[in-house]
Write a structure and sequence with these properties.
Shape of chain A: elongated
CATH architecture of chain C: 3-Layer(aba) Sandwich
Number of helices of chain C: 10
Radius of gyration of chain C: 20 Å
Number of strands of chain C: 10
Largest sheet of chain A: 2 strands, antiparallel
Largest interface: A-B, 62 and 59 residues
Helix content of chain C: 25-40%
Order of helices and strands of chain A: HHHHHHHEEHHHHHHHHHHHH
CATH class of chain C: Alpha Beta
Chains: A mainly alpha, B mainly alpha, C alpha/beta
Number of domains of chain C: 1
Radius of gyration of chain A: 32 Å
CATH class of the largest domain in chain A: Mainly Alpha
Strand content of chain A: under 5%
CATH topology of the largest domain in chain A: ABC transporter involved in vitamin B12 uptake, BtuC
CATH topology of chain C: Rossmann fold
Oligomer: heterotrimer
Number of domains of chain A: 3
Order of helices and strands of chain C: HEEEHEEEHHHEHEHEEHHH
Chain lengths: 433, 434, 282
């Protein structure tokens, strides 16, 4: 790590610690809910709701003339659920594409919100800029003591939110899983998918409003989508996905704050950038779904196939012609040339499967064993197809062509049992033992 | 006399509305409405980077910066969708929030610089239409020209790409490059619109005019023209309103005007509007109910048509799955339009006009039933229900065609005024009083 | 050195294949369509592997197999609509990319948004777009061709109607008309009979016969086992790999069907699974 950054870490204050704690609370709540949004392909509804709750906040403020937490919560939840409902209704009743109807609804709500806020701006210390990128830097300025602990005001409301979110997920884990996987199946099982949907949406709205004044709406959107998507790249299990998403959220909060302090810039913005970096890392390097892993897997498989093709080719050559020799150049040419066959030849020689003579290739003992296995798989497979499928003999070869590379010894034995009496393949070639 | 500055702003927002209406229509049709939203957000870091590099607010450079990061945003969305398991909605959301986050980071860095406060870059987030100068309008006008030209010249290509990309690919078209051209236009429009209306409002400008226009027409070129008109109107009216009531910011007012047009279109548009659809639905149901009533009345008295005996509501319920109150309601509705009369003893009878209409209804029904039996080899007991749903919507020409076919098949003596006999048994028992 | 190493690379049988059976890959006259060693994978999951086929000229060929067997994918991969992990496709001996104008395509009805604001005639007209240059508008002759095609599928009366207001069968006929105006030599059709009414089914069958009569080659994904023998000359039995391919009379046997749709598939499935585990791709 850059020594400057280390220096920054050393100078972090208690205020900064609170920023990280509050940020972590926001990010974990959003990240957990976001997993479901990502899986249900409703990420953008999270985006829409987080923009659309603005008029709810404004109306709550106009009615109560205060920034009391409860009315704002209720206002935001009402508008959040209304957004989800209207998007769906306009889509269904008026035959408007789903994304367009969502776009119409949330931009309109947002516009209403901005207008309301500018109208009451004289009385409110909520400026439109704050709506977008929040003021998490200043959470330390507004402290409250409860239960013997003095913590930022935002901490207390967010603690409630995270408790509700975690409680909801734990309580309805099974139901949420089924609803997210297959809403119709859930309905047939007596789970009210619509209710679960709106519960989830109101939780998203509630979390958003709690996070709003501290971190602003962009960080909420980022945290609703990015940790869930990152986790989705790293695992196939829902429970792990939730945990990874939470971890991504916490790392974003901590690293985001450190870097923001270091470069003296927006904390909320930096937190979403850090989340984005984690996502990018996962896209490239995720163990199973990452780009590198796919490329490696693809390449290693391709080269294994070429190596095995060479082994089998030499075996068959000596099986059919005992006297003439086969050169490495011939083999490479037969495989279409290029880098891969050359590398494969080299690999085979180094691994001791093929003898050193390049003009007259010979299999070593180990090489012959491997090759025999491959050829045996191929011919067993053809025999199997011939025995159990009513096919003309010339149709048998193609399916067997690549199968030989993937037949494990156990599977080979199973095939042998299926064609127990066969000594030769359908073309009359001997099946090696 | 409108002040010059207001005139400039009106021109700017009007043109912006026109151009975003056109290009937004394609986005809406391709289910990419929110791509514009992502783009608008992704443009912010580019604007900030351009400022950081040049150290001053040089409009073309800022636009170029926005164009670059906006395009990168589109490419990232496309790559994520194609090369990973991330779905499109998440990809859009990720680009939107992370790019915007990066933009905010850079913006704050700029604001902390000594010269940063005068940069006015935060207008790109909420927009400041009132700050528009002639140069901005020239830019928007230029972009407007390019987009209209592209929409006219590439109309055929854009149409097929939007309707059926796979088919376009089998024709050997470079669908990817066409797609990039289309998205590139979207990026350019978004970028020139940002300073005027801001990030979120730009998404609205792209989506709402097209979505509104779709209600009024079934033809793509009409839709594009309408969307341009709606967009232009939105921009001009919105700006005028915000100039008149000076406390209101232009961007949100423009969006509200657009939303108003959308709501009006959604409600009142002929055919596709909610009102028209509800009305035609109600009408069809009413007509179906009346025809079913007439047919049932006819079947009840068919054996004794000259006497035309009166029937009880209870008799109707035996032939149809109606409750007695429902049957009474139908009868009352029939009586109101003079198809049915109430006899002195409280029973019901077809009027002359009712009988005439009933004959037509029954004839259509039985023709259709017979046709189904003749042509589709459907078991007799399955016929009645199918015939029920279709007969109410058969046109006169189809009925004539059916008649001809049945005459040809020798199933129906030509020129008979009365309906043919029903191909299946009708259980009439009791409830009929002469 | 007289022997060619490639000949023993694979165990390709030396005997000549019967020239009229699809599945053969060497012949004097080039086949309308040849598919060589084609493997297709969606993400990590191979859906088709090692497809080797030759489609015979002037015949109607049906692709039959259970759900998820990769029937549509086969067509899409041939047309380059889904990326191939390996393999190549030739049309009359040349790469498909050079011969696109010879190939017409009828996609699955569900693949497009029927609420798109175009009329039936407009939709059919799109079949002519391939032969129009950039920026060029369809001309009167194109409109007439489109109208004729609509007439041929019995849809002339619906030319002006918006496509969402057509029944499923009518929409299918619009797609067929669009393929007709392509005036192609080879047609690929993806489930043309899926979810259509009796009238449309008859119209499609008549159309297929007409195409055959005029020497066109048709390859269609088909889901109805009852009608395979009546509608098609050749059949390809597909279940992730080609189980059998050839003239209907030779290949469409109860045993092959059982093997395609189940029955003795346990080992086939295990092998498929082994390949799936190992094969990566994309």
């Amino acid at each position: 790590m850059n020594p400057g950054v280390l220096e920054t870490i050393r100078t972090l204050s208690t205020d900064d610690a609170w920023v990280m704690v509050v940020g972590s609370l926001v990010n974990v709540s959003c990240g957990l809910l976001g997993c479901y949004l990502v899986l249900r392909r409703q990420s953008l509804l999270g985006d829409a709701i987080s923009h659309a709750i603005l008029p709810g906040l404004a109306v709550a403020f106009m009615l109560t003339h205060s920034r009391a937490v409860l009315p704002m919560f209720l206002g935001a939840m009402a508008v959040g659920v209304l957004t989800a409902f209207l998007s769906q209704t306009i889509h269904r009743v008026a035959n408007v594409p789903e994304d367009a109807s969502m776009g119409v609804v949330f931009t309109t709500f947002f516009a209403v919100g901005v207008i309301l806020i500018t109208m009451v701006a004289r009385h409110i210390d909520l400026d439109p800029g704050c709506v977008l990128y929040g003021a998490i830097e200043f959470v330390g300025l507004d402290m409250q003591s409860r239960f013997g602990l003095t913590a930022p005001r935002a901490f207390w409301s967010l603690a409630v939110v995270i408790a509700v979110v975690v409680g909801f997920i734990v309580l309805f884990y099974k139901e949420l899983k089924i609803v997210s996987f297959d809403a119709h199946l859930a309905t047939t099982m007596g789970i009210n998918a619509t209710l679960m949907h709106y519960l989830l949406m109101s939780l998203v709205a509630g979390t958003t409003v709690a996070a709003f004044e501290s971190v602003g709406s962009i960080l909420v959107v980022a945290m609703l989508i990015v940790p869930g998507a990152t986790a989705h790249l790293l695992t196939d299990r829902l429970d792990r996905m939730l945990m990874i998403a939470a971890a991504v959220g916490i790392v974003s909060a901590i690293m985001g704050n450190i870097l923001a302090v270091h470069w003296n810039t927006s904390v909320a913005g930096m937190m979403s950038v850090v989340a984005g970096l984690q996502f990018a890392t996962a896209v490239v390097a995720a163990p199973r779904y990452g780009l590198i892993s796919r490329w490696l897997h693809h390449t290693s498989l391709a080269s294994r196939v070429v190596r095995e093709d060479i082994l089998a080719m030499i075996y068959r050559w000596h099986e059919s012609t005992r006297d003439r020799s086969l050169s490495a150049a011939q083999v490479v040419r037969a495989l279409g040339g290029g880098l891969l066959p050359h590398l494969a030849m080299l690999h085979l020689r180094v691994a001791g499967l093929v003898g050193p003579d390049q003009t007259a290739l010979r299999l070593t003992r180990a090489g012959r064993d491997r090759a025999r296995g491959l050829v045996r798989s191929h011919r067993l497979w053809e025999s199997y197809l011939a025995k159990h499928f009513d096919l003309p003999i010339d149709h048998l070869h193609e399916p067997a062509e690549r199968v030989e590379h993937f037949v494990s010894p156990t599977l080979r034995d199973r095939l042998a049992e299926e064609v127990i009496d066969a000594k030769t393949d359908p073309h009359g070639r001997r099946i090696p033992p | 006399m409108i002040p010059f500055n207001t005139m400039v702003v009106l021109c700017g927002t009007g043109l912006l509305g026109v151009v975003s209406g056109i290009i937004g229509s394609f986005a809406v049709l391709r289910r990419r409405a929110l791509m514009g939203d992502a783009l608008a957000h992704a443009a912010l870091p580019g604007i900030c980077l351009a400022f950081l590099i040049l150290g001053e607010r040089h409009l073309p450079a800022l636009l170029l910066g926005a164009l670059i990061t906006g395009t990168v945003g589109v490419l990232v969305v496309t790559t994520l969708r194609h090369a990973t398991r991330i779905k499109e909605d998440a990809a859009i959301g990720i680009v939107l929030s992370v790019f915007f986050g990066a933009g905010v980071v850079l913006l704050r860095v700029i604001q902390n610089m000594p010269s940063g406060n005068r940069a006015g870059l935060d207008h790109y987030i909420y927009g400041k239409a009132a700050g528009m100068v002639v140069q901005d309008v020239q830019w928007i006008g230029g972009v407007c020209l390019v987009v209209i030209l592209a929409a006219v010249l590439l109309y055929k290509e854009f149409t097929l790409l939007s309707f059926d990309t796979a088919f376009a690919a089998t024709l050997g078209w470079p669908t990817l490059r066409l797609d990039i051209v289309m998205m590139g236009l979207l990026v350019i429009v978004t970028v020139v619109g940002l300073p005027a209306v801001g990030v979120v409002m730009m998404a609205a400008m792209l989506i709402i005019p097209g979505a509104s226009a779709r209600f009024w027409t079934e033809r793509l070129h009409v839709m594009l023209i309408l969307a341009a008109v709606f967009g232009g109107l939105t921009g001009i009216v919105g700006t005028w309103l915000s100039a008149t009531f000076s406390r209101l910011p232009a961007g949100p007012v423009i969006v509200l005007v657009a939303a108003a047009i959308f709501v009006v279109s959604m409600t009142f548009a002929p055919r596709r509007g909610i009102l028209a659809r509800t009305l035609s639905h109600v009408n069809l149901r009413r007509r179906t109910a009346r025809q079913n009533l007439l047919r049932t009345m006819y079947e009840l008295v068919e054996r004794d048509l000259d006497a035309r005996p009166a029937v009880t509501p209870a008799a109707l319920t035996r032939l149809r799955a109606w409750t007695e109150p429902h049957a009474r309601r139908l009868l009352a509705a029939g009586a109101r339009v003079g198809l049915i009369e109430r006899t002195s003893d409280g029973h019901f009878r077809l009027t002359d006009r009712g009988l005439l209409e009933a004959v037509g209804v029954v004839r259509t029904h039985r023709l259709w039933e017979m046709f189904l039996i003749e042509q589709a080899h459907i078991a007799t007991d399955h016929v009645d229900r199918d015939a029920d749903s279709i007969e109410h919507v058969l046109g006169a020409d189809i009925i004539r065609d059916l008649e001809d076919r049945l005459v040809q098949l020798g199933r129906w003596p030509h020129g008979t005024a009365r309906p043919p006999r029903s191909p299946h048994e009708i259980a009439v028992d009791g409830g009929v009083t002469p | 050195m007289t022997m060619n190493a490639a000949a023993v690379t694979s165990e390709r049988p030396a005997m000549n294949r019967t020239s009229d059976s699809p599945g053969a890959s060497q012949s004097a006259a080039p086949w309308p369509v040849e598919i060589h060693d084609m493997t297709v994978a969606y993400h990590r999951k191979p859906v088709l592997w090692d497809i080797d086929l030759a489609i015979s000229r002037g015949h109607l060929t049906g692709i039959v197999g259970p759900n998820g067997a990769g029937k549509s994918t086969l067509i899409k991969a041939v047309l380059g609509l889904v990326p191939k992990a390996s393999g190549r496709v030739t049309v009359y001996g040349k790469p498909y990319e050079q011969q696109r104008h010879l190939v017409g395509y009828v996609p699955q009805r569900e693949s497009v948004d029927w609420d798109f604001p175009v009329s039936a005639l407009d939709a059919v007209l799109m079949g002519r777009y391939g032969r129009l240059g950039w920026f060029r508008r369809p001309r009167k002759t194109d409109r007439e061709a489109a109208m004729n095609a609509l007439r041929q599928v019995g849809m002339a009366d619906f030319a002006g109607r918006q496509i969402a207001q057509l029944s499923g069968g009518q929409q299918q006929r619009v797609f067929l008309a669009r393929a007709l105006v392509q005036e192609a030599d080879i047609y690929f059709m993806d489930e043309p009979f899926a979810g259509v009414d009796a009238a449309t089914e008859k119209a499609i069958v008549d159309l297929l016969r007409e195409l055959k009569r005029t020497g066109r080659t048709v390859v269609a994904v088909h889901h109805d086992l009852q009608t395979v023998e009546r509608y098609f000359d050749n059949v390809i039995l597909l279940n992730m790999r080609v189980v059998a391919a050839g003239p209907v009379a030779d290949v469409y046997t109860p045993m092959n069907l059982q093997n395609t749709y189940g029955g003795r598939l346990t080992i086939l499935d295990e092998v498929a699974e082994a390949v799936r585990q190992a094969k990566p791709i994309r």
